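Marked as duplicate of an earlier ticket. Keeping the data here for the record.
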Amino acid sequence: MHLPQKKIIELSDVSVAYDSRIALQDVNFAVDEGDFVAVTGPNGGGKTTLLKVILQLVKPTRGKVTFRSRGEVVKQLKIGYLPQKNMIDSRFPITAEDVVLSGLLGDRSLMRRFSREETERADAMLRLVGMDDRRRSPIGALSGGQLQRTLLGRALIANPEVVVLDEPLSYIDKRFEAHLYDIISDYARHSTIILVSHEMTTISQMASRHIIVDKTLHDCKAAHHYVRSECE
């Protein structure tokens, strides 16, 4: 028997304005448990703003955001987030291992002692993202691709309900790219995925839904997912 899907995130009439500039306007958008949502759109169209609203980093100018877990309304969800690299201060004195472990902290201090189980989980995650040999390196000494893989480890280590990935292919070399697709596919089996990318060739085959963001949202059925007119 087919069971109805449960909404986990719902945006109702959401608009976001920065001073006089409209970033998002009248957005109605729901994500179901188990969705794999691929998001694209033009530069400046509001993709990152949409993610920040979902992450509660930006408060809507108008409208409402509702989160549900196991069908019940909750204040927040357990979300793993991979930001764009340019949002990270690489001068901060922290190692790759520390970055991955920080995904287990929540609101707690990085100075706290981690349990053996947590450090073993970090070991496994560093191996998964190919950063085991650079675990002690400060993030300022990492290449763009190495930092991206480290941040991916941080996003995934806590086995979040929702994984939000903003341009995960940035700086990743072709050798790791295929492995990255395998990692994302594996997590999609038990998590809800929201992924922003300009490169949709492989991701479009993995995703269950495709969204175009250009101030408003449009469900897309086309093969390329770049232009709104292709999706109507």
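See parent ticket for discussion. Confidence is low (pLDDT under 50) at residues 225-230.
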